[in-house]
Amino acid sequence: MAAEADTITDQWQSLASSSPDREAIVFLRADGTEHRWTWGHLYARARHYAAASEASQIKRGDVCALMFRHHPELYPLYMGLMLRGAIPAILSHPNPRLHQDKFRDGLSGMARKSGLVHLLTEREFAQTVTPVVESHETTLSSLHFPLEWPSCEPSPITPADSEAPCLLQHSSGTTGLQKAVMLSHATVADHVERYAAALQLTERDRVVSWLPLYHDMGLIAAFHLPLALGIPSVQLDPFEWVLAPELLLQAMHRERGTVVFQPNFAFSHLALRAHDDELEGVRLDHVRVFVNCSEPVRAQTHARFEARFAKYGVRPEMLSACYAMAETTFAATQTRPGTRATELSVDREALAQGRVIPSDDETATTLVSSGMPIADCTVRVIDDEGNPLDEGHIGELVVRSRSLALGYRNDSERTAQRFKEGAYYTGDSGFIWNNECYVLGRKSDLLIVAGKNLFPEDIEAVVSEVAGVLPGRVVAFGIDDEALGTQQVAIIAETEVAKEAHIALELAIKQAALAIDVAIRQVFLAPPRWLIKSSAGKPSRSANRQRIGELK
Amino acid sequence: MNEELAAIIRKHLGLGNFQLPPEMQASEVPGWDSMRHIEILTAIEDAFGIRLKNIEVLRLKNLGELDRLVRTKRGIE
After folding, report:
1. In A, which residues are within 8 Å of B10 by CB distance?
2. For chain B, is the Cβ count within 10 Å smaller at the N or the C terminus?
3. pLDDT value of position A338
4. What is chain A's mean pLDDT, rounded?
5. Do A243 and B34 touch (CB under 8 A)?
6. Is the pLDDT confidence value at A1 over 80?
7. Closest CA to A488 of A470, A513, A507, A465
8. In this structure, how many other beta carbons lie within 10 angstroms of the beta carbon of residue A70?
């Protein structure tokens, strides 16, 4: 039996009428600005947006792309569109680093693939996005600036059908190549309830988040989850956080935050960059869980975070982990709150051969569990032929969940590859041990940099166009950054230019990648015909990566 | 823009003799992403023996303002 007939919008309405003065969302900025939305104010504001969107010709079922920087009005606007019966989809906004044309290409590709109808944004981005909306080929029919909408008397809300789509979210990745999943009211409402149970959330919890809402972890875990449960969430600016990570810990102290979701690199970033003189008076004793999610969880990162912040009240049992993806709404597995995420030391060589053999040898590698499946979800492991594998054998992780999306929007080919018989084939490699799930990384060459998926093909295509680089003779891959607890992007490019011009060429390559918002950490230049080809005739990423030592 | 400061940034990002005018924003400097940002600040702190708080740097608009902040911290102006 699917979830009760309850819709997300019904839940909001009932919270607004039963607890109008209770805090719903606390919006903070580094300059001290804050906006505290109570349920009463938030819901009233959402109703304004529902009526104003109707007046702006936004119809029920229209997919509305939202493109905003950190702004207190984004929350009621998003909610208002849902009350209207439209389908909000939050997208990342243009930033100065990204070349305008590249951004537009990405947006038009996404509009077509995801079937976006309206684009709602800030006036500041008008110049960047207008050409996309005005193009003849786009599915986008209109551009709106909702922050300028005149105030509207609330109009009656048409009750939503629980099976109707309520939101569209994109898998993480390079803009334009992201895959869109549509989720129904029932799916989201049911999912957050089951994930809340796995986290043992109570009314006393408060979520604090710096995550952008265009990421599934930001949208589902740090926004929908607390909102549905009526517990407050404290929202920080992702761009401010990355430059001043102590803002998260200060907010947790001040707002009595108990739950945080963030990718592995963020734990390292905090441990390395939040200095003691920036944390005076901060206490974290009241925290329940730090959930590490969205990129492989590293034992060294947990150890470093724990040691660094023990004096502020961080205890080992606060360190938790989750395995999640947009395709299953969010969470598939979660470690038990109040217990430190299990670690397993295994033989490194056996692991490379696909087998798990516990070892306490000095050369062993330590892996961190992402926990057990949440309710009504199973994770199994299969080999390359699709045969089930026993515990302790590495293969592809396959998730069966009641929260599964119906497939990728407008992409029947990818849907057929990934969604089969009620299960999602993740493309992630991992294994099960003592009923707990361990995620090792991607089966493919996909890079995960600071929680964001990058396709090497995108980076190679851009670098290939740089004058001096031999076209098609480029490979991009990830190199481990132990200190930051994530991967960094490296490339090898073949060139004929003289040694004296190498620095200028490296610079041109880095600049070209910036246009797609990718920062290349290392450029290795190689002479013509240096790159080894794979059987498919293309330069092999893994084989060439092994040889970078020869280029130094 | 103080040449010593510019040299630290260029060296750290492998920029050769790339020009760094005061009105340039960090996001326009090749390789200066959010992850490298704090490494660059640490290099500046070490070179001049000063302490730059994250929040002070967050408020800066461009390289010229960074230059001014570094000068103030060094007691030059």
Report:
1. none
2. C
3. 97
4. 92
5. yes
6. no
7. A513
8. 20
Closest CA to A487 of A543, A429, A448: A448
- For residues B14-35, one letter each, b for 16 or more C-beta atoms within 10 angstroms of the residue's C-beta and e for the rest, the string is ebeebebeeebebbbbbbbbbb
The amino acid present at A116, given as its one-letter code, is L
Where on the phi/psi map is residue B66: left (φ > 0), alpha (ψ -120 to 50), or beta? alpha
Q: List, in order of start, the domains of chain B with CATH numbers.
A: 3-74 (1.10.1200.10)
Q: Is A361 helix (H, G, I), strand (E, B) or coil?
A: coil
CB contact under 8 A, B25 and A96: yes
Between the CA of residue A243 and those of A172, A202, A240, A498, what are the distances in Å? 22, 32, 5, 38
Of B16, B31, B53, the CB nearest to A519: B31
Q: Do A523 and A517 meet the contact criterion of CB atoms below 8 Å apart?
A: no
The model's confidence at residue A220, banded by pLDDT at 50, 70 and 90, is very high
Record: contact B18-A507, CB cut-off 8 A: yes
Whether A244 and B58 lie within 8 Å, measured CB to CB: yes
What structural domains does chain A harbor?
Answer: 8-185+208-237 (3.40.50.12780), 342-442 (2.30.38.10), 455-551 (3.30.300.30)
Give, rounded to a whole angstrom, the gap between the first and last alpha carbons of chain B. 13
- Banded model confidence at residue A176, pLDDT cuts 50, 70, 90: low
Of the candidates A118, A141, A161, the one whose C-alpha atom is nearest the C-alpha of residue A3 is A161
Amino acid at A515: A
From B62's Cα to the closest Cα of chain A, the distance in A is: 13
Preferred mutation among B18, B54, B59, B66 to probe A, highest tally of A CBs within 10 A: B54
The residue to which tokens 């020009």 are assigned: B19
- pTM, full prediction: 0.89
Q: Say if CB A24 and CB A38 are below 8 A apart.
A: yes
Which residue, A427, A424, A430, A420, is CA-closest to A395? A430
